[in-house]
């Protein structure tokens, strides 16, 4: 078994993923650029909460906001390199969830 060293360096990742909606927003954006309404309708999150979470994730360098100068103006959100680095973590969470969710249902 691998020894797990506990220190404060894990705090940031755990805090980011533990906030309600953050993990799902990041998962959704792993598939590529998305518009606000698309994220909102697919996740079933309120517009106000999505706005708050996106702003926080932008400040943390996880989400990139791109303004596309069309008429009307379009705004697309995507993951930064830092945001994309969550993919392997989320894959492992998915594996864990699938394994234990199935075993508890039987």
TrEMBL record:
The keyword Transcription applies. It holds the Pfam family HxlR. Coiled coil: none annotated. InterPro entries: HTH_HxlR, WH-like_DNA-bd_sf, WH_DNA-bd_sf. It comes from the Bacteria. GO terms for molecular function: DNA binding. Residues 8-105 form the HTH hxlR-type domain. Keywords: DNA-binding, Transcription, Transcription regulation. PROSITE patterns: HTH_HXLR. This is Transcriptional regulator.
